[in-house]
Each structure stands twice: as C-alpha cells, then as structure tokens.
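Students often ask why we bother encoding 3D structure as a string. The short answer is that it lets us treat folding as translation between two languages. Here is a chain of 292 residues written in the first language.
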Amino acid sequence: MSKSIDKALNLLKGLPRVCLNNIRDNPGSRSCKKRGRGQHGGDKHGDGNKGSKARQNHFRLGYETGNNPFYLRFPHEPYYKGHHLKRQYPPLSLLQLQQLIDLNRIDISKPIDLVAIINSGLYKFSVDEGHFGVNLTDEGAEIFEAKINLEVQWASEPVIAAIEKAGGVITTSYYDPHCLQVMMNSKKFFERGVPIPRRMFPPPDAIEFYSSAVNRGYLADPDKISEERLVLAQKYGYTLPKIEEDPEYEMLTTRKDPRQVFYGLNPGWIVNLKDRVILKPKDEELLEYYAS
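And here it is in the second language, the structure alphabet:
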C-alpha cells in the first residue's frame, strides 16, 4: 500500500499544477452544431432572412414598428407645464447675510437692496435663468443682530421677525426682468448712456403678495405695516424697538418709489460716469411718462 502511495506522489510531483490553461472538458461532452446546407439552413449566420436585423438597421429608441409608442399611449400629465416660466428666487440665509455684513461686504449705514447684495460678489444671480431676486431664508435667525434697512423679493414670517427684532426694517419688492438686468451690472448699464427705466408693477399672480402688510410688501399701506409689526412682536414674544427714537431713523425709513430702481436715482435720468454728471429730462411728455 505504501508503495502505491509513494508512486502516486512521485507522479504528482512530475505533473504540472492544475490551472485554467491545462484543463478541458470530458471527450464528447460538447457538440458543435454543423452548418446546414439547405435553402436557409446556414447562409444567414443567425440573423434571419431580410429585415432590419439582417441589415443591421436598428430602430431608434422608443420606436415600436409603426405602432403608437408607450409614452404616447398614456394620458398627458401636465406636471411641468409652464415650469420654465415660473419665477425663481435664489436663496440667501440670514447667516450668510450676517457674514457679508461682518466682512464689510455690505454697508449697513445705507439701505440694502438687490444691487448691494449682488455687488458683494458672493451672491449668484442670473436673469437668464429666470431669477427674480432674493429669497431670504431663516437659517441663522437666532444669531442675526444687524440693524438694517433691507429690501428683498421674498421673505417668510420668521425672517421678518428676526430683522425687526434686531431693530431693522424689511420690505419685499418686485422688479421686472428688464430692471433686474439693469441692477445685475449697474456700472455696465450706466456706461451705455441710456435712461434709467421705470419699474413695472407686479403681475396679477404676485400683486396680492406685494400688497400685503403681513409680507411687508412695498405696495402695502404703511399704517397697516406698523400694526403688523406689533402683532408679529407679540406673537414671537420680543419687544419691538421704536424706530422713531432711533438715531438712524432717516436711514431706516428710506423707501424707494414703486417706479424707482436705484436709491437716489429717478427713472428717466441718465448717469454719465465719465463726466460725473446726471442728465435729467425736461420734456413734459417724458416727465409724465416716468412719473410715479
């Protein structure tokens, strides 16, 4: 018995190690189908007789050989109807606004509007992408402490409460795309030497928002805004600072005209940066056109 074991071990020592390149199937375990010799027995190479498959002419994705495709068989769902026309408001949080103020990117001694926020260089805004202004979010509302006169395009109730709790004032204001294009790069606009356009009024679906004192709309009644400021202070449990006794009362109460685009510049004026002069219209028709 030991001799047969030794003989087998000696045989294994001489044989190569078993691997993929020296193993094979048992004889007769596989059979290859021979090519036929009939009319269609083997001359098409598995691609059939005629047709697009035989000619390597593949249909486009979704084509069902003349039938109504599956994506047209079902009823239309207008979920995204008019989606490209909806107004977009890129967000800006109170935390980011506080950082811009701390870094002196924004001057709080003057009223802050969309032009001041864009000129900070840290807010992305593009009219071509359907942007209509700033959506101020409540992230960082508990640490916001700047007393500012702010004008944005969209703000929620906690944001308004945080601004007014710090002694500031907030206004929601609408700008049409033409005015937004002017505000996006004001220097380039002034170099063109064309009159400052007048701001258009909000569309029908936004007139209610910008006329509401709850939203601090720029078209709302100032007396109702004062009442809503007190109501919001009672709701959130803080003492409303008295703007009338504030040393910066003039700055905090500065407002734009509903037709005005820039602070201190009326519609119809032409700003000449080279000569540092402002040209104002004198024609009665122009004055009537640009009047509020």
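Translate back mentally: The mean pLDDT is 89. Keep this in mind for the problem set.
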